[in-house]
């Protein structure tokens, strides 16, 4: 009897207590589900944030690449400007040297040097054959700078530079007709005509010579040569400074 009463009492206790256990289990599971749902929402939110940050990083990378390209272009422009600046500096230095040279020379302009003359200053004249073959052009049309000496027929360069010279000769068929332009005693150019049956001949020649200050230029006959001149100016000699050097 006692055993049966104990069993009944135990069943009654179980019937009274078990519903409470089930209710607490239901409450704990609901809270767990809600916690899981909140965790899922938080994970989704974090994922959206990560995606947003990823997009921001990609945009930043694109801007950085564009900046690199821009800097590369600017560097190329800087290099070109540097080369142009160096070229300008070189030209500026050259200009400064020229200015210094002009200052050292007193800043004076190029001297005016020019002359023109013919062989005869009166009547008719036959020159040659002769031992001293130098032709002295007596009739001076101009002699700017006084570099030509009408007493010797010699032009003496007062300054170094490039000079233009021209001469013409006229003669008859009895002798070799022609002459030579001489620089410091050395032949430069010439005119020449052997005796012919046509009665008379004329010719001319010209050259640009580079002279140093003090160089001498004159015209002289060929061996056994002869030229003729009168006031018509058939046989002439002229020259002028092109530019100093």
Commentary on this structure:
- The chain has 245 residues and is α+β, with helices and mostly antiparallel strands.
- The protein has 2 domains: 1-108; 114-244, Sandwich (Jelly Rolls).
- The protein is 42% helix and 31% strand.
- The chain is built from 1 helix and 12 strands; from the N terminus they run H-E-E-E-E-E-E-E-E-E-E-E-E.
- A 5-stranded antiparallel beta sheet has the order 3-1-12-6-9, with no helix packed on it.
- It is rod-shaped.
- The N and C termini lie far apart (151 Å).
- The model is unreliable at 11-24 (pLDDT under 50).
- Residues 108-245 form the C1q domain.
- Keywords: Coiled coil, Secreted, Signal.
- Pfam families: C1q (PF00386).
- It is found in: Secreted.
- Residues 1-22 form the signal peptide.
Task: Record keyword descriptors for this entry.
five-stranded antiparallel β-sheet; C1q_dom; 245 residues; Jelly Rolls; alpha+beta; 42% helix; Cerebellin_Synaptic_Org; signal
